[in-house]
Design goal:
single chain, 0% strand, mainly alpha
Length: 78
C-alpha cells in the first residue's frame, strides 16, 4: 500500500500515485544533477517565476503539438 501523510490509500488512485512517483523521481534527478533541492537560496523569487513561465510555455508547445497530431490522425474524433 502506498500512502502519503494526509492522503488516503494512493493505490485507489493510480493517476495520483503515478504523478507523485514522477515528482519524486524528478526531484532525485534534480538533486543528482544540481546537487541541491528546490530549497536552494541562490535563485531569487523573480527567477523562480521566470523558470516556471519557461516550463509552462514548453508545456503549451508540447500540448499544441499533440493536438496537431490528434487532429491529423484517423483515430481522433475531434
Amino acid at each position: 500500500m502506498t500512502t502519503i501523510k494526509g492522503f488516503k490509500n494512493l493505490d485507489d488512485d493510480p493517476i495520483v500515485a503515478t504523478v507523485m512517483k514522477r515528482m519524486s523521481d524528478r526531484s532525485a534527478e534534480g538533486i543528482k544533477k544540481y546537487g541541491e533541492t528546490m530549497m536552494r537560496s541562490d535563485i531569487d523569487t523573480i527567477a523562480w517565476i521566470d523558470h516556471a513561465i519557461e516550463e509552462l510555455l514548453d508545456g503549451a508547445i508540447y500540448l499544441e503539438r499533440v493536438k496537431h497530431d490528434l487532429k491529423n490522425s484517423k483515430f481522433c474524433k475531434c
